[in-house]
Write a structure and sequence with these properties.
With 118 residues, the chain is mainly α. It is 75% helix and 0% strand. The chain is rod-shaped, with a radius of gyration of 25 Å.
Length: 118
């Protein structure tokens, strides 16, 4: 049963709901643990396996979200690079140079807050 105390609240909420228990937002981790243990369907190995599945799904979802953010970041970065190349090929005035500098600053900001910080 100690494994329940190590789980996150949101994972315990899902587990309790899967067991058919009524859950409210005001419940604390200890409350969730108690209703899970008190469930008529409580069997430690089953609950342990269910919680493991919930945790795996949670990690998978976080990984997918991180990959999506990374792809978005890379797409934005490529778009800014294309804009710079387009502007460089058409440099005709001081305003164009200012725009290049502005886009270059945006790229610098993206890179400094880049994928390592996602």
């Amino acid at each position: 049963m100690a494994f329940l105390g190590k789980a996150r609240k949101q994972d315990l909420v899902l587990l309790a709901e899967e067991l058919g228990q009524k859950v409210s937002d005001k419940m604390r981790i200890i409350d969730l643990k108690n209703i899970i243990i008190g469930s008529k369907d409580y069997e430690e190995e089953f609950i342990r396996a269910q919680l493991s599945v919930i945790l795996e799904e949670h990690v998978e979802r976080e990984t997918e979200e991180k990959i999506a953010r990374q792809l978005c970041y890379e797409s934005e970065l490529n778009e800014l690079r294309l804009q710079i190349e387009s502007i460089r090929s058409n440099v005709k005035s001081g305003r164009v140079v200012q725009k290049i500098v502005r886009i270059h600053l945006q790229i610098t900001e993206l890179v400094s807050g880049g994928p390592g910080n996602i």
